[in-house]
Amino acid sequence: MLNKIHTGMLRRVCMLLGLALLAGNAMAEGVAWNELNAQQQQVLAPMKDRWAGLPPQKQERLSKGATRWAAMTPEQRAQAKERLIRFKNMTPEQREFVKQRMREFRELPPEQRQALRAKWQSLTPDQKEKLLERWRNMTPEQRERVIQRRMERQQQRARRNRD
What we know:
The protein is mostly helical. The protein has 8 helices and no strands.
């Protein structure tokens, strides 16, 4: 099961978790319910009664996530819901693995993150599917070797850039 989730799932879950978990830095004072715009209030309506009791950081993340959600097309929303269901159906170990990979991605310098996004987006749908299928069919040991080689190449490039 982890084979099918690994990279493809990480890509799919990133967008959804970005709605609530990756929505920027939180403001210390939080966001009052009446400061939310009408779209945000509509998206967050189920939380209205609990809103004031939420930690300020969570209020900020949710308000930004609601803004993104309101801007999504119906198709994007459906895809996000599907990814959330998949994420909720993962084992705790699988969820932690995905979260760790996301933390590692966020720790990359912005130019590296952008380069990875651009590289992925430049692939055709067929190329993406073939790449994901190849990854799914690897053993955990093979995947670890691929990751290690990538890390070594990144370190070599970083050393060359410093020199």
